[in-house]
Amino acid sequence: MDIAALIAWVVTALGGFYLLGTWIQRGGIRQQQSGTSRLPAPVIFGHFALAAIGLVVWIVYVVADKDALAWTAFGLLLPVALLGFAMLARWIPVHRERAAAAAAPGAEGTVPAERHFPVAVVVAHGLFAVVTLVLVLLTALGIGGS
After folding, report:
1. pLDDT over 70, % of the chain
2. Which contacts (CB < 8 Å, 24+ apart) does range 132-136 have?
3. pTM, full prediction
């Protein structure tokens, strides 16, 4: 199950990299000054940093097979999940505004960078994140191991 969690974590990270790249490319960092982006940079980069550190800890766990590392990785995943839910809650209104803006021609203006996130990538990232969290917890509890 530890390898399944690793695969799920890597797939989740790939989706996260895509979303982060889209946000940066569409001016998310510059929009922090004007307040156009609804996603605060510290939340985004904190989410990224904790997830990356947790992934490194998980890789070390897979190699070393020490229970403390599994629990450490799980402990790192909890704030990652909370930050992810916070970002999702701030992204949903932006996504809804996108649909309203499409219905009103000429009302483009300055759009938040996160408006360019593909819904499929956001949903897949979230679902794989939940799977990762559950698999890491089950592995740390010793359920489903060999």
Report:
1. 92
2. 132/5, 132/8, 132/9, 132/12, 132/77, 133/74, 133/77, 133/81, 135/1, 135/4, 135/5, 135/8, 136/5, 136/9, 136/58, 136/70, 136/73, 136/74, 136/77
3. 0.90
